[in-house]
Amino acid sequence: MITLSNNSYSADEIGLKLLPKKLFLDDRGALLKTIETEGGQVFPSTGICDQYLSTTSEGVFRGLHYQKPPYSACKLINVIQGDVVDCGICVDKRSDFYGVGYKVKISESTPFLLLVPHYFAHGFFTTSKRSVVLSSMNNKYSQNHEQCFRYTLVHDTLFIGDELIVSEKDSQGQVELGV
Q1: Which CATH number do you get for residue 11?
Q2: Mind listing the pLDDT tens digit for each residue in 133-150?
């Protein structure tokens, strides 16, 4: 279940979507189908351009990261191993959803992928001993367009976890919203 910082909106209105995983199990192991385009494209507009696999220790918070136009991107989040609290906040001043944050618990056994829309700064907090997260974006990475926001933007209203371990880059992120 997705928790929002502002109950005036639904996750669907904001563009957050929980997409079903298609998992096929047999005696050899498992096959996970994460993208399906027949009968309609699940991943928006341009398809996947960049994909990152992160391994993260318990207590680590990664984020909140965002790319300014023209490199803003939707993200498809798939937890391969472990448990995370995924979160984000709308940073587009022109949006009706500006300042609305979300959090959702996702694990390897969760039957969905999370689709995070454009204009959301995104991050996650690892609550298990270790997590492996596959993040797919529909636009390429541009260091010149990257913005980092402090985790406090979502932590203060949605409480993510105790004693977060944050990188130097992430701890120096902006403390106020706005793109």
Answers
A1: 2.60.120.10
A2: 999 998 888 999 999 998
